[in-house]
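This entry is passed on directly below:
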Amino acid sequence: MKSYYKKKVIEAGCDEAGRGCIAGPVFAAAVILPADLKIEGLNDSKLLSAKERSRLRTEIEKKAIAWSVAKCSEDEIFKHNILRASLMAMHKALRGLSVYPEFILVDGNRFVPFDEVEHFCVIKGDSKFTSIAAASVLCKFYRDEYMLALHEKYPVYKWSKNKGYPTIEHRKAITTYGSCEYHRKGFRLLSEKPVEKLF
């Protein structure tokens, strides 16, 4: 994994979490790391356990030059669509940094320019650049924590397990109990297949 894309600039890595969910906000994080920093075990957050993400989150926040996490709500997702809301959350995270970036590395292949700061999109960047991987860990950690809190309010949807993703169990609960205010309007909450064929 590379420590930076450009030398001798303040480089921020950006990533989002929750884009493929049918419930809960989309989160994003921006992280600026020292160019020579090595964090053992840092990787794409999807490849890490919850315990590993928790450990790495503490280390990232302690050693980063600056970090920020932001979200866009279910209503913002409905108003703007999930792609735009994901990019808006990234902009919010960038705006929240205590150090202004001179260059932005973005996970994926789409981005809306942030102010006049140069950026570069990297497909699977969370497994290629440490700053994006760090952002991946933070937004995943904080979104999971958020969904765990929502699970206490609506335990029937098992958000403690599925974190709002459209699992069979989640969709079965929607069929049984209906949706709630944290489900994303405009998203297909149920499969096109009859529910009885899912189980």
User: Anything to note?
Assistant: Residues 194-199 have pLDDT under 50 and may be disordered. The CA atoms of residues 81 and 186 lie 9 Å apart. The beta strands are 11-17, 26-32, 66-72, 103-107, 118-122. The longest strand covers residues 11-17.
